Structure formats: structure tokens, C-alpha cells
Amino acid sequence: MEQQNSQIQVPKVKLGSQGLEVSTLGFGCGGLSGILNAPLSHEAGCSLIIDAFQKGITYFDTADICGQNRDNEIMVGKALKQLPREQIQISTKFGIIMSADMSHVEVNGTPQYVRQCCEASLKWLDVDYIDLYYQHRVDSSVPIEDTMGELKKLVEEGKIKYIGLSEASVDTIRRAHAIHPITAVQMEYSLWAREIEEDVLPLCRELGIGVVAYSPLGHGFFGGKGVVESLPSESFLAWHPRFTGENLEKNKFLYAHFADLAEKHACSPAQLALAWLLHQGNDVVPIPGTTKVKNLDANIGSLTVKLTTKDLKEISDAIPTDQVGGQRQVQVFLPFSYRSANTPPKA
């Protein structure tokens, strides 16, 4: 039933209007260091990254918070040494700090921290420049103009090529873009997380900003995670409201209907979910992650799924967002709370 990816050409698209060109399907590398599944060894992770490149994916996304002690950036850096750097687009992120006791997560957007994180990412990735550098979460205690001012300096110094924001509001995006053009905004975007269609996506199109869709498969839900396969014990999904209790039981009914729809299109549910996103416009680039070659191949196979306007509506209607059980969490680390590193904790 799954579409095969034998000799599938992965097209290139312009991400934003600043000149960055990426593969229309990216690869989210963070999961290689854990979160949804057990982490891979660096050898296995590098092998998967290299395999993805050889199959046409050139855009790889990571973050300094992924894995202990920057494990993911180090892993990605090792893979880069085995690939032609000029053909690769690397994005990484700064701004999230996990407390030593893992009781909470802080955000920091001060200019000093921006530069400190960038220098560290250059070191651990072992590269001369970062293609796309995101503020991972916005620090509400620091004016976005101050954060962007330092990022602009890093562009001028050649340490980063393009600037991105992640999970930012329309006001923040507009203010940031006035300081220096934003190339991409990374948001959770999938069939069961479509809030950005109301305001963020229209604004990005108005300003010529690309959208990078993280968790395009609903943290694996549309691949059957928690439905046709059990959740790994290491996965943070054990705390996710959409994968627990009555919410999960409710969502299983949606999945069953969606799986029938995928069968109609002769593809897997994961492929149909990705194909739907890929049909939202060339300015939307999904970055699914996986630790398995078979899933990588299936994701690439989604490029061959052709959908009409009628199909797209039928697919959207199959997952009514008001019927999805549980809240979407902006925070990646669900058991923890966020606060600014520059705001004292409440007594």
C-alpha cells in the first residue's frame, strides 16, 4: 500500500524570499538523540542522515537542546563531515535552557546569550556557518528587537546566513522582520495542529517568509504511534495529552477513519498526512524525523501522492480539529514548565 521511493526526485524549493533553497521535504534530526524513541548511536544516526541525503533530502534540522550535552548537534556535525557541505542546508536553534534538575525549562533571548549559543553551535556542528538559525522560543522579557539585533550582526559576520523564529506570534514575527528579514518560521503544523492557518501562515505569505512544519505527523500519531504500535517507554508521549487516557481513545476513532481514506489513495496514513502538507504550498516544508530507514523511504514516497482540491478538503474534514482529543502543547518537553531566564521564578 505504501508508495515506494525508487528513483523519486526530491524537488528543491525557495524557503522564504531571501534566497535560501532547500529540499521540499526536510529531515528533523532531534529524534535521533531521543525524545520520541530511544536515542541512536552516532554511527547509526549519521548513517541515516547520509542515507537521507543520498535519497535527495538536503535540509537537516537540529537544536542545541536536542540530546544531552548537545548530542544531536555533534551527531549532525559528524554526518556533515561525510557529505558535501555546499549541498547541505543546516538549521539549528537557541534559546531554551533545561534546568540542572530538569524541573523546568527556561528561555533566554538576550543578545549575549544569542552570541554564546551561536558560537557553541558552530563549534559542536564543526562548521564555519549555519544556514538557518532559529530562536527556538521567544523570550517575553527581552524585546525581540534586541534579539534580532544580535542575530543581524551574526549574519553580517557570516556566522549565520538566514534567520528564523519558532513558535512566534504574528506581532513578534512582524516586529522581528522589521529589524532584519525573517527567512522561515517553524511551527507545529499537521492535520491535527492547524492553528497557524488562522494568522501565522497568512502573515508569512504577506511578508515572504517560509513555513517549516515540525511534527508534521502529529508526533508519529499519523504513523500509527499509540494506535497500531505501542508508545516506547522512553517517549515523552507518555505525558502528552493527546496520547493518554480518554483522549487517545477518542483519537483512535479519527485514525481509523483516516486509515480508510489512506487506503483509498493507495498509501499509508503517514504518507497521506505528509502529502496533505506538501500540497499546502511550496512555501511549507515539512521536516518529519525518524530513526528507521523504512520510515524515511515511506516519507519520501509521500511525494508521489497526488491530491486534488476535492481530495484535500476530504482529508481535512476527516480530522476535524475541534474533535481531536487533548490540547496541542507548544512546549516540546511536556512535563516541564517554561519561564524566561531573565524573570525571577514566582515564590
Brief account:
By secondary structure, the protein is α/β, with parallel strands linked by helices.
Number of separate helices: 10
**Helix/strand order:** EEEHEHEEEHEHEHEHEHHEHHE
Indicate the multimeric state.
Answer: single chain
Strands, total number: 13
Q: Name the strands of the widest sheet in spatial order.
A: 3-4-5-8-9-10-11-12
As a percent range, the share of helical residues equals 25-40%
Strand proportion: 15-25%
List low-pLDDT spans. 330-338
Quick one: biggest sheet? Answer: 8 strands, parallel
Mass-distribution shape: globular
Mean pLDDT: 91
What is the gyration radius calculated from CA atoms? Answer: 19 Å
Secondary-structure-derived class: alpha/beta
Intertermini distance: 56 Å
Q: Main attributes?
A:
globular, 347 residues, three-stranded mixed sheet, eight-stranded parallel sheet, alpha/beta
Describe the protein's topology:
Blueprint: E1 12-14, E2 21-23, E3 27-28, H1 42-54, E4 59-61, H2 71-80, E5 89-94, E6 96-98, E7 104-107, H3 111-125, E8 130-135, H4 144-156, E9 160-166, H5 170-179, E10 184-188, H6 200-207, E11 210-214, H7 245-264, H8 269-278, E12 284-286, H9 293-301, H10 309-318, E13 337-340
Parallel strand pairs: 3-4, 4-5, 5-8, 7-13, 8-9, 9-10, 10-11, 11-12
Antiparallel strand pairs: 1-2, 6-7
Helix pairs in contact: 1-2, 3-4, 4-5, 5-6, 7-8
